[in-house]
Amino acid sequence: MRIGFSLPQFGALAHRPEEVARFARQAEELGAASLWVGDRLLDPVNPTVGYAGSDTIPPEFRTALDPFATLATAAAVTERVQLGSNVINAPWYPPAVLARSLTTIDAMSAGRLLVGLGTGWSPEEYEAVNVPMAERGRRLDEILDALTAWWTTNPVEYRGEHWTVPASYIDLKPATRPHPPVYLGGFAPTAIRRVARRADGWLPIAVPPVPFDPQAAVIGPMATIREAAERAGRDSAALDAILRVNPSSGATVEDITKVLARAEEEAGVDHAFVDLLYLAKDVDQALDLAQRILDGATAR
Fold this sequence. Notes:
This protein is an alpha/beta fold and 300 residues long. It is built from ten helices and 13 strands. The strands form two sheets. Strands 1, 2, 3, 4, 5, 8, 9, 10, 11, 12 and 13 form an eleven-stranded parallel beta sheet that branches. Helix 2 runs parallel beside helix 10, helix 4 (95-108) packs across helix 6 and helix 8 (214-231) runs parallel beside helix 9. The mean pLDDT is 97.
C-alpha cells in the first residue's frame, strides 16, 4: 500500500508555515507516497452546521493555510511524492481561477497532482465567498466540465448556467495528459452517482479509533459506484479509492496501522493517507508519527 500524510496546514502546525517545506522534504525522505491538503476558510463564531455531524467546529480550523500555496511549496521541495487535495471545495472558486491554480501545481510538480474535489458543508463559508450553498452541486458539475475544457482544448471556452469562460487562448496545460486524475468526495447518493459519472475515483474516510468496517466504508460504496459507472458506459475497473485516515486525538499508531492493513487486505485499497491534524502539535512530532506509522505498516 502507498501511504501518505497531510501537510502541516491546520491548527498548531499551521502557526509555523515556514515548516511546510521541511515537513514535505523529510516526509518524502521517510518514504511517504503522497502529501495532502484540505480546504477550510473560516471557523464561524456561531456555526449553523457543525463539523462531522457535531454542533461545533474543531478549534484547529481557526488557523488554516491556503491549500494551493501549501501544495506549491511541497511541489517545489520534493521530487517523487504525489500531491493531493482532500478536498478542495470547488464551488468556492470560479473555474478559470481553479484551473489556473491546479494546472500550475501539476506543471510545477512534473505531473504529480491528484485533484480531489468536494462541495464543503459550512453555510458561513459559502456566505463568505458569496456563492449560494444550495447551488453547490450544480456548480461542481459545471466546474468539472470547465476544467476538462481548460485542460484539453485551446482556445478554451465554457458557458454554463453559473460559470463562464469566454473563448481564450490557454497555452499552459497540465504535465499529466490528458489531465490530472480527478477524485470526488461525498457520501450522499447524489455525490456517489457523480463519482460514477464524472470522476477517476472516490475519497472514502476512516476515523480511528472508531471501529473500521471495510464493507460499509469502502467495499459497498465502491460496488455501487462501479455499477453506476457501467450503466453510464464507463470502464468501472479504472475507478479506484484513496482512503483518508482521519484519527481523533485518542487514536494510537496501532489503531491507524490496523485500519491501513484492513483497508488493503479486505477492501483492496492500495493508496491511503493519514491526517495528522489531531495528533501532532509541531512538525517534529508529525514527522515522528509518520515514521512510526510507516514502520508499523511495513511490520504488518
